[in-house]
Structure formats: C-alpha cells, structure tokens
Amino acid sequence: MRTSIAALLLVALPLIGSAQGKMPSIVVQTLDGKKVNTSTWSNDGKPIIVNFWATWCAPCKRELSAIADKYDTWQKETGVKLIAVSIDDARSMARVAPYVNGQDWDYEVVLDPNGDLKRALNVNNVPHTFLLNGKGEIVWQHNNYEPGDENELYQKVRELVGKK
Amino acid sequence: MMSSRSLVQGTISLSLFTLAGAALAQDGGQVHGNFSTDVQYYNEDSAIGAVVPPERLGANAWANLIYTNGAFEAGGRFESYTPPLAGYPAGVPYSGSGVGFRYARYTMADLEVTVGNFFEQFGQGMVFRSYEERYLGVDNAMDGVRLKFKPVNGIQLKGFVGQQRLTFANEAVKGPGIVRGVDAEISLSEFFDSTWTSANNLIIGGSFVSKYQEDRDPLLVLPENVGSWALRANYTTPKWNIYTEYAYKINDPNNKNGFIYKNGQGLLVNATYSVKGFGASVGAHSFDNMFYQSDRSAATPFDLNINFLPPLTKQHTYNLPATLYPYATQPNGEVSAQGELFYKWRKGTKLGGKYGTKIAVNYSVAYNQDTTRLSAADDTTRQGYTTTFFRPGDRRYFQDMNVEIRKKVSETWELTLSYLNIVYDIDIIQGKPGKPVVYADIVILEGLHNFTDKNSMRFELQHLSTKQDQGNWATALVEFTFSPHWFVAAMDQFNYVTFDDTFLQDGKTEVKPERLHYPIGSVGYIRGGNRFQMNYGRQRAGIFCVGGVCRQVPAANGLTLSITSTF
C-alpha cells in the first residue's frame, strides 16, 4: 500500500508540475445579481487579471487602489482586463458595490460569497492574483500584496502581449 | 527492507499510475491544489497568562487536491492537528490526521451532481449555509448528495440531503442530525432575455430546509423534524440594489433557547445606491429565536449550524478594533441597523487636491429584542416569552460610529486617519457576566511611503482609550516591504491604565494593573503562489474574526511559522 502511495506521488508530481491551469467552471454573481460561469470569461484574446479580495482585507484594498491609478494606462497599452473577485460573504457582500463605486474603480467586480471559486482555484488567503493569457490559461499567480507588486504583475502582462 | 512481493506490487502500481497519468495528461485532466500549515512553539510567560500546551508545539496543516477532467471533478482534503494551535478550533476540539473532505462531481448540460462533501448556501443563508472558515476552525461541510439543475435560462433549482461535519478525529466526525433542503431562484431579466433588454433585474427565490433528529428526551416531546423556509427578492438597477429576505422556523426546542416551543423568524433588508465616486448603503435586521443547529443539544454555538445570521456591523481591519471589541450576531434575539457612506473627492477638486481624497463613514447599532417573559402559569405551551418583531428593547448590545479619511499627500506618501467610537456590551457579546459595558474611543493613523517603486515602508499608530475592561491600549507597527519577495515587520502593543493608577474593574475591587508590552516581530518571503512567514514574540489574547464568525485566541508567547502554497 505504502509503495503504491509513493508511486502515485512519483507520477503525480511531474503531472502537477506540468499542469497548465484553465479557469474552472464555477458560477459567480455579478453586482446586479446575474449568474456568470467563470469558464466563459474572455477578453478578445487579451490577458485577464483575476484578483481575489474582500472589503475587510486591508492589503487587498491597497493593491486594487494602487492598480486603479495605473489601470487606464495598462488598458490602453495592453488591453488587459481586471476582474476583482470579492469573497465577502453574506455579512459584507452588500457593501461591495458602494465600496467599489466609492473608490471610483473601473474593474469588473464579481461576488463569490460562499468561496466556490476561491476553493476551485485553491486560494488559501487574500489577496491572491492570477494572470490568464489570451487563451484563458493561468500562466502566473501571486499571493499577498506588497507595494510595487503591481509593477511585476504588469511586466508579466506586457510579456504576454509581446511587449518587453 | 522491501519484500519482493511488495516490489512487484509497487512496480505494477507504478506502471498503472504512469499509464493513468499519461492518459490523464492526454485527456487534458488536471491536478491542482494547495497546502497550508501553521506551526507554533509556545514559551512560558506568566505575565500575560500565556497558554502552554503539554506538547509545547502546536501544528495545523491542510492540503487540498482537486482533479478535473472535462465535466468530471474529484477532490479531497488532508488535515492534521497534532495537536491543534491553542484556541483552535472555535467549537468542539479537533485531533489527529486524516482525510476530512472528499467529493466527486460531474456536470452534464444543465445538471450538476455532487456526491460526498460539499458547501452550499441558499440566499444569504438565513435557513441554510454550509461553509468553511479554515483559519477559525469553522467547517460545517455537508456529507451527502447535492443536485443543481438549470431547466431554462434564468431559473436555478438546487436540492440536497446529508449530514453535517461536527468535528475532526483522524477523519471528519458527523453530527447526529440529517439536513435536507430545496431552493428555487428565478432571475427575471435572464428568463425574459430575448424580449427584455432592461438594465434592471428582479431575482426572486425561495427555499425549504428541514432537519431530522431522534427525540430521546425523557420528559419533553420534541419535534423530530424541524422545518424552515425563506423567501427573498433582489431588485437591481445600474445604481440601486435592494435586497430583502425573510425566514421562518417552526418550533425547535434546543439548549440555546432553553427548550422553548416558540417559532423563530428573521428579516433582513438592505438597500445600496452608488455611482462613480459615491456609494451609500442602509440596512436593518431582526432575528428572533433563530438558532438552528442539526443537533438540538450541540455543545457550542459554533458547531452544526444549519443557518448563518450575518452581523450587520463593519468588519474592521486594524488590529485594535478588529480583535478587541468585534460584534457577533445574537441569534436568540436582536434588532440592528447600519448605514454607510463612501465618497471620493476627485483629483483637482478643492478637497481632492492633487491626488484625490477618500472618505468612509459608517454607523451601526444592535439592540436586544423587546420581549416579555411569560410566567409559568401563563406559559402552558412552553413559549418562553412574547415579543413584537422588529421592536428593539432597551439594552444596547453594540454601537459603532467610525470615519476614515484616506489621502495621498505626495507622489510617495499616503496617509489614512480613522476615528472610532464603540459601545460594547461585553457581558452579552463575550459572555462575561456582570462586566460593565465598554465605552471605547480609537484613533488610528496609518502611513505608506514608497522609497522606490519596489521598496516601501508602512506604519500604523493606534490608540484605544477606555475606563472599562482592560483599560487603554497603544499599538505601533512598522513594516518594510521589498517587492516582490520580502517583508519584515515589528509591532508593539502596550496595555496601560491612566486613571489614578488604580483600575476599578467591575466597579468593585481596586487592582493595580501591570503595564504590559506585547512586542512581536515578523519576516516573510513570497514567491508566486508560495508564502512563508515567521513571527516571534508575544501575542495578545483577542478575538479573531473572518466573515461573521469569531474565535477567542488565548495569549501566547513563542515562535510561529506559517506556510501557504497554491499550485
């Protein structure tokens, strides 16, 4: 039994290493209550940033505010789109729309109130950022936020659209 | 030494798995998952009343693995608590290592079938929410069968049956009750999509949930099946979002309500209005006798909850307001209200200055429910009390007025100033009978300075003043970050009392309080989806909350290592 477990690990590890992540098929809600399947997310062949956050998470809000200052330029230069996935639950999900508007953010915001997408993407804690290429495959991810991380993220976005 | 037989077995299984692996890779199957662990070494520290478990070392670990291939998905979670960290979990203690969650799911056209463990929520959860908050140790995962069906666009049907997770002892331990439920939701603008292109939407939903638990009570005749239902409506326009949900539960005598036969009900209403640069929300809740657990004699209020009653208060992010005096919903009865405003003065305006200024104002209040106890003679059907729904009583459980101003003052500096005024009935909320109501004022200044576009420094200065509970607190934190990999931080929390150097705790005994420092240092390293963090120092006893649920964390002194990884 032990050997088969070891064998499973031996085989599974390279498999894990090589796995090119696709977006899972999970239903999330838009701010106007519509249900959207995440496997249908697309941006006309341009990259997508998927950022997990919550209204109670201070570093998340710092990150989204920092990106908001540059988002216009990012969009013009690369066509990238940011989808902000709020994991606020029943307690605070009603605060998401007024908060987002109060911040003057231009992101597409969706709600994941029971953590279905968070679990499907194996997110441990927020903030957690995924970068999807034009085919919708996850090519990069980053946990946590430190001021300046947005520059590294944008560098990856530029590489995806062929700008160095 | 490996016997030849197991060697053969090993080789066979290895080749089988290789084949399987190759097949999976060809079919586009994927394995992904995550891992996280928190390990803490505890030092003795009698000055702060630190808890030291006999093992000296606590370790929590989790690993999730998910395999997906087209419409098929299967997954499991390994958990280990050897032993759990002090104060973890919130409810019945965990022990040992093993698989605590496993499921298989497939999706065929409009039907999704899940067997094994699953999480689910109906509406905002007033009659059913199965969820996990790993860092609190709250997990009431269902084990059973769930179906989701979408017959036409805009209509979603769900149904489930199963048992809830109670605790963990080398495997998930389930509670004694059975829970089953159905939910239907129609989203009108999606349903009438072809003809109705309105930007407005109305969503109407309804659910029915019931639990079964055998009645073994020697005296009372208890209902073995307890039903509950809820109705909800959500109307949205590009600017407005109005949500309401009403829930009703038939009589459910349990150890939280004193085994009374009264029916329970709950109502929540929320409205938000927002346009670019401005957002506002108002909301109100009332709950009466709404504890709903799949074991009527559940040992703690954290375990086997079928429903979720969201508290209507702001969840703070700064250390002092977040961990000293957070509010928790009182399911047996409360009436509460909240209002909130967000505004941004754009750059170039008088108050916005060169970079813009943001303000947030929030007010929330919670009262008990106005009730009249019934005397034994009048209470022949064991109703306990009478009440008028939504009428507050005269006991204020909680009040929070707070304002936050955030301003970028130069190219490299951003400052945030916050003020909070909190009234906190610690007797009710934290279950400390006889302790006086806490009145606290909190002022917080936070600054963020970017040295370069990769290196930055952040500080927080927090002060809480109160003449009740533990007296005043002052906190200073400084954090240096070196994007994208490193951070170091140091924090000190200082507990002191100023009035005459004597502290009239509970208005009775004079105590000369000790002046206590709680210094702690952290260093962290982040690389992609991996994060390593180490802390050393004193941790104050406090209340740790995620979502609507809080867990008491005891004081500790020692070394903590946390690792999280996503792949």
Give an overview of the whole structure.
The complex is a heterodimer of chains A (164) and B (567). Chain A is 38% helix and 23% strand. Chain A is built from 5 helices and 8 strands. Chain A has helices at 2-18, 58-78, 96-102, 116-120, 149-160; strands spanning 21-22, 27-30, 35-37, 48-53, 81-86, 108-111, 128-132, 137-143. In chain A, strands 1-8-7-4-5-6-2-3 form an 8-stranded mixed β-sheet. Chain B has helices spanning 4-27, 188-191, 319-323, 426-429; strands at residues 30-42, 57-69, 72-81, 96-108, 111-118, 120-121, 129-130, 132-133, 138-139, 142-149, 155-168, 172-174, 178-187, 201-212, 225-236, 240-249, 264-275, 278-288, 333-345, 357-373, 385-408, 413-424, 438-450, 455-465, 472-482, 486-496, 503-505, 509-511, 516-527, 530-539, 542-546, 549-553, 556-566. The two termini of chain B are 34 Å apart. The interface between A and B is large, with 66 and 100 residues.
List the helices and strands and how they pair.
The complex is a heterodimer of chains A (164) and B (567).
Chain A: H1 2-18, E1 21-22, E2 27-30, E3 35-37, E4 48-53, H2 58-78, E5 81-86, H3 96-102, E6 108-111, H4 116-120, E7 128-132, E8 137-143, H5 149-160
Parallel strand pairs in A: 4-5, 5-6
Antiparallel strand pairs in A: 1-8, 2-3, 2-6, 4-7, 7-8
Chain B: H1 4-27, E1 30-42, E2 57-69, E3 72-81, E4 96-108, E5 111-118, E6 120-121, E7 129-130, E8 132-133, E9 138-139, E10 142-149, E11 155-168, E12 172-174, E13 178-187, H2 188-191, E14 201-212, E15 225-236, E16 240-249, E17 264-275, E18 278-288, H3 319-323, E19 333-345, E20 357-373, E21 385-408, E22 413-424, H4 426-429, E23 438-450, E24 455-465, E25 472-482, E26 486-496, E27 503-505, E28 509-511, E29 516-527, E30 530-539, E31 542-546, E32 549-553, E33 556-566
Antiparallel strand pairs in B: 1-2, 1-33, 2-3, 3-4, 4-5, 5-10, 6-7, 8-9, 10-11, 11-12, 11-13, 13-14, 14-15, 15-16, 16-17, 17-18, 18-19, 19-20, 20-21, 21-22, 22-23, 23-24, 24-25, 25-26, 26-29, 27-28, 29-30, 30-33, 31-32
